[in-house]
Design goal:
This protein is an alpha+beta fold and about 240 residues long. The protein folds into 3 domains: about 55 residues, RNA-binding S4 domain (Structural Genomics Hypothetical 15.5 Kd Protein In mrcA-pckA Intergenic Region, Chain A, Roll), CATH 3.10.290; about 90 residues, Pseudouridine synthase I, catalytic domain, N-terminal subdomain (Alpha-Beta Plaits), CATH 3.30.70.580; about 80 residues, Alpha-Beta Plaits (2-Layer Sandwich). Helices cover about 20% and strands about 30% of the residues. The chain is built from 6 helices and 17 strands. A hairpin with a 2-residue loop joins strand 15 and strand 16. Helix 1 packs across helix 2. The longest helix is centred in the C-terminal third of the chain and has 11 residues. It is elongated.
């Protein structure tokens, strides 16, 4: 017998605090009944626990992978409309792994997946300031003035102030390739920042996450994160 939030953390879904948030949002069911509080005691051998409709089980060994997520793929393990999700590409991982944070449906690039709930929660939490680097193709010639406005901060639709370090990588005059580095991740933040300074986004790729780079990893392919890289991630979070 075990508390539901502790069980979810041991399943690698998230930390205990993250589990409390999932429960509060109605994302967790026990025997197909949505639960309302983190204090529920469950029988891990008899009860069926689901998060977002997906059954979760206890972690026997921790796995850490880096996926080059293709565009037009959902950053989730389950979709009721049967659209392609990142789980389609990680079936050969020996254990179920969960996305750390999210990438928009139409955005491709670096995505970490793991069954280490504590690390995943910390990496995704804005207060830890994990760096995320993107390459965007926009219409027009990107200017230094636009980069400064993005660096100074722009109000997003959710009320937060979004900001990023932005610089021009190359331009044809008709389009520009822009690199943006963020330490927070609000919903559709890069797209909002660029649009607000007059540069509609054409394509977006995340090329680096927490120091992890794709390094030739083709779209739809993944690799194990090595021991040195795992230690680096844990050092970032003080684990």
């Amino acid at each position: 017998m075990i508390r539901i939030n502790k069980y979810l953390s041991q399943c690698g879904v998230t930390s205990r605090r993250g589990a409390d948030q999932l429960i509060a949002k109605g994302k967790v069911t026990v025997n197909d009944t949505t639960i309302e509080g983190p204090g529920l005691i469950i029988d891990e051998e008899k009860d069926t626990i689901k998060v977002n409709g997906t059954i979760v089980t206890l972690v026997k060994e921790k796995y850490y992978i880096l996926l080059n997520k293709p565009a037009n793929v959902l950053t989730t393990l389950h979709d009721p409309f049967r659209r392609k999700t990142v789980m389609h590409f990680t079936r050969k991982v020996p254990s179920r792994v969960y996305p750390v944070g999210r990438l928009d449906y139409d955005t491709d690039g670096a995505l970490v997946l793991t069954n280490d709930g504590d690390l995943a929660y910390r990496l995704a939490h804005p207060k830890y300031g994990i760096k995320k680097r993107y390459h965007a193709i926009v219409k027009g010639m990107f200017t230094k003035e636009a980069a400064q406005k993005i660096a100074d901060g722009i109000k997003l639709t959710d009320g937060h102030i979004g900001r990023a370090e932005a610089k021009l990588l190359m331009s044809t005059g008709h389009t520009s390739r822009v690199e943006l580095t963020l330490t927070e991740g609000h919903k559709r933040e890069v797209k909002q920042l660029l649009k607000s300074v007059g540069y509609p986004l054409k394509t977006l790729r995340r090329v680096e996450y927490a120091g992890l780079r794709l390094a030739g990893l083709r779209a739809g392919r993944w690799r194990y994160i090595n021991h040195r890289e795992i230690r680096h991630l844990m050092d970032l979070e003080g684990l």
